[in-house]
Specification:
The structure holds three protein chains of three kinds. By secondary structure, chain A is mainly alpha-helical. Chain A is about 75% helix and about 0% strand. Chain B starts with 8 loop residues before the first helix and ends in a 6-residue tail after the last helix. Classes of the chains: A mainly alpha, B alpha/beta, C mainly alpha.
Chain lengths: ~230, ~280, ~280
């Protein structure tokens, strides 16, 4: 069986079916949404079994006769007691195990992630190379000053526990206002990138519809370099 | 209760029906796909960093390409993965694909790798492999750091990874020369940085969707990331560097005019708003 | 490794298939007995202590292994050899949680179908899709096709490819591609320059949007790349905004998140947190 043609037409019909929602909510798009959720659920089970449980649990337990692996599903089954009011504490027991693991893992990751970030904040601000750095040029030093000012003002914006009263508080307040302005620049940059990302997704679908699907019917389209 | 009909020019400018906006966007995209205005693409510094990181991997080490993406971001992460795979093959570097979430990514990436492998005559299991989707997030990484065959188990096709030829001599994280994270999910980078790059100094590069990329510029600044592909733009730049212009380059041709349209619409809306403010009113919600 | 040897001694592999099934059955029965005993013997206070103890030990193990001094070559401490087997065990245990989400979906759609609620045919489609992907996904896996697969494939593999590449992936891609329309419409309707901050955000957005695309580079291509004015080329300006204005702001946000996450992790590790999942009243 060569499924390519069926794949092409199924994908085109599915894509157009979803796009009908742009006109208005309708039964066709809702049907395809449910199909998508069903396929997703089915694939999750398949992938979990074939790529994880079969190799790391079933084969060692059954083929290598390492019977102690039976404790894994027993412990994992404790999660399902979340649906029981009386035995719900067992689910919290296993969740506590995973929450503790997550907390401990975060402690492990904290310094490797954030200490280089902190270290990278200390940029040379003196362009006379007095810090032993060769080739510290004026533009770089100017950029470093901009960097440090933005960083400090943005961090000051997040000091919510210090009231903006008194001499220190008022200055902190001014710094926080400046930090908010710089944050708006960052959010603007994020918005610009977000637009780019979202539009890319649609362009990708149109590439499929025009080149792969319609291109199979109209050779002129397939050769357009879409 | 339906919104009141726009009466003045400023209201009409601010309340163009959404279906017209959708049609405009679709029209611009279709126009540019069919009749592209091709403009040159110049690789940026972050993209060069990814290519240089791949080229710098010692020949006796593996590259891990983590494909933590699915069809929802395929338009960006698919070409990114494909470009990185081409860079690996062209530089004669062996690589493995794996994924921590979501499961779909490894199948989509395997299809891309197979397509590229046919072009270079690469053989699965010898030149590249697919470790598959591994559930467990940090636990997988911590286990991998100590013992890769035990942590990974079976590959994408159900074969124990230890039996693959390219896995000979690969015991722990020290056998890995580079990890390229291709993802549309946040938190993956922090895991790899915190558990692999930081403790073991394993070089890390990344390819993100454009939405996420601004968040990870600090990691470029601190040299925790050697390079970064930013959405379809980064993919297009890497495609240009590996001389395989593909979908990403086509996307960027279209992207230009879509952005011009969005900017024009925003300016139009603000023009209407200014007119309304000048008259002493604002747009009705 | 000493841990493997210890495990082999305490839990030796079963010598025969019959012994294996006996050991499995005994392990299941024994575990049920222990769980029932825990449930009967521990009151609310005892349960809270047990949960807090398990949470603390789990966090202590991973945290302590990182911070405890190491020695020898390769450098390790008394916990290092436990990391890999414990992590693998946790990944396997965690994999069994796949059923939680699936059960919720089955419950909701099953109820729709059983009670013939409006839209029940959508729930039927859900079940059919789940069943089809499950059956053909497993079937395809156990076909053990050669790599690369042949052009003409067995029909179960063909059906699986239709389900995956013909429906699953395109449906997801199409659903998320709708965001392009929504962002265009939302940006047009809601992005109003009412304040100076909004104007700054819009200016940054425009510079980045145009600087990231080829037309931005084309618009200012008349500025020589090696001249002092090259800074004003839109692609350079966009990159500069991202590199020198966005980066420090994002780093400030990262530090705020880091401190908050550290505090939260400490609260969870020490079982100080209250609310959903953390107390009886959920």
């Amino acid at each position: 069986m060569n499924p390519d043609l069926y794949i092409l037409w199924a994908a085109a019909i599915a894509t157009l079916g979803v796009y009908t929602i742009l006109y208005r909510e309708n039964p066709i798009s809702r049907l395809f949404e449910h199909i998508f959720v069903g396929l997703s659920a089915g694939y999750l089970i398949v992938a979990t079994w074939t790529l994880n449980l079969e190799g790391k649990w079933w084969n060692p337990m059954i083929h290598d006769k390492k019977w102690y692996w039976i404790f894994a599903p027993i412990v994992g089954a404790l999660f399902y007691f979340i649906y029981s009011r009386r035995l719900g504490w067992l689910a919290r027991l296993i969740m506590g195990l995973f929450f503790g693991t997550a907390a401990g893992t975060f402690f492990r990751q904290f310094f490797p992630i954030y200490s280089p970030q902190i270290y990278a904040c200390f940029k040379p601000l003196d362009y006379q190379a007095g810090m032993g750095l060769q080739g510290v040029i004026f533009e770089l030093v100017l950029h470093n000053w901009i960097f440090v000012i933005i960083l400090l003002t943005v961090m000051s914006y997040f000091f919510f526990s210090i009231p903006h009263e008194g001499r220190f508080g008022r200055n902190l307040g001014r710094s926080a206002v400046l930090g908010r302005w710089f944050l708006m620049i960052a959010f603007g940059a994020m918005f610009g990138n977000t637009v780019m990302a979202r539009i890319s997704l649609f362009i990708g679908r149109m590439q499929f519809l025009l080149k792969d699907w319609l291109g199979s019917l109209l050779p002129w389209l397939a050769g357009r370099g879409i | 209760m339906s919104a009141p009909q726009p009466t003045t020019l400023s209201d009409r400018i601010q309340q163009i029906p959404r279906h017209y906006v959708y049609l405009l966007l679709a029209g611009v995209v279709v126009w540019q796909l069919l009749f592209p205005i091709r403009l040159p693409i110049t690789p940026s510094v972050p993209t060069r960093g990814v290519y240089d990181a791949v080229a710098a991997v010692p020949d006796d080490k593996l590259i891990i390409i983590t494909t933590d993406w699915d069809a929802s971001t395929q338009a960006e992460t698919g070409p990114q993965t494909q470009a990185v795979i081409h860079a690996c093959f062209q530089n004669h570097k062996k690589f493995v694909i794996m994924n921590l979430q979501p499961p779909m990514g490894v199948k989509l990436a395997q299809d891309l790798a197979q397509e590229a492998a046919a072009e270079y005559g690469a053989v699965y299991g010898v030149d590249y492999a697919n470790w598959g989707y591994k559930y467990g997030y940090e636990n997988v990484l911590m286990a991998m750091a100590k013992n890769i065959p035990n942590a990974i188990g079976d590959d994408f096709y159900g074969k124990p990874v230890g039996e693959l030829p390219l896995m000979q001599g690969v015991e722990d994280i020290h056998a890995i020369g580079l990890v390229v994270i291709v993802t549309g999910l946040s938190a993956m980078t922090e895991m790899w940085v915190g558990l692999i790059q930081g403790p073991y100094n394993t070089p890390l590069a990344a390819a993100y969707t454009a939405v996420m990329a601004p968040i990870y510029y600090p990691y470029l600044d601190s040299d925790q990331l050697k390079g970064m592909l930013v959405g379809a733009k980064g993919a297009a730049e890497l495609e240009a560097m590996v001389d395989r212009p593909g979908k990403a380059v086509a996307i960027m041709n279209v992207q230009s005019w879509a952005h011009v349209l969005i900017i024009a619409l925003i300016l139009l809306g603000n023009l209407g708003y200014l007119f309304a403010r000048g008259r002493g009113g604002e747009r009705q919600p | 490794m000493w841990f493997s040897r210890l495990l082999q001694r305490l839990f030796p592999p079963a010598p025969t298939p019959a012994a294996l099934y006996l050991y499995l059955a005994l392990a299941v029965v024994g575990s049920i007995v222990i769980i029932v005993a825990l449930h009967r013997l521990l009151g609310p206070r005892g349960r809270r202590w047990l949960i807090a103890f398990v949470t603390f030990i789990a966090g202590l193990f991973f945290g302590l292994e990182y911070f405890y001094p190491v020695h020898g070559d390769p450098a390790k401490n008394f916990l290092t050899d436990w990391i890999e087997p414990v992590s693998v065990m946790l990944t396997v245990v965690g994999a069994f949680t796949v059923g939680l989400g699936i059960y919720s979906l089955l419950q909701v759609h099953g109820r729709n179908l059983a009670q013939r609620r409006p839209g029940w045919h959508n729930s039927l489609a859900f079940f059919l899709a789940t069943f089809a992907m499950l059956v053909f996904g497993m079937w395809e896996h156990y076909l053990h096709l050669p790599q690369p697969p042949p052009e003409v494939v067995p029909w179960p593999k063909g059906i699986y490819e239709i389900l995956f590449n013909g429906l699953f992936a395109p449906l997801q891609a199409a659903t998320f591609s709708l965001l392009a329309f929504y962002i265009a419409s939302a940006a047009y309707r809601a992005f109003r320059v009412r304040t100076g901050e909004a104007a700054l955000m819009m200016a940054a957005a425009f510079i980045v949007m145009i600087g990231q695309v080829p037309v931005g580079a084309w618009l200012t291509s008349f500025i020589p790349a090696d001249s002092p004015a090259a800074f004003f080329r839109l692609e350079m300006l966009g990159e500069w905004v991202l590199r020198w204005l966005n980066t420090p702001a994002q780093r400030g946000i990262i530090f705020g998140i880091a401190v908050g996450a550290l505090a939260m992790s400490l609260r969870i590790w020490l079982s100080l947190e209250r609310g959903t999942f953390f107390s009886e009243q959920s």
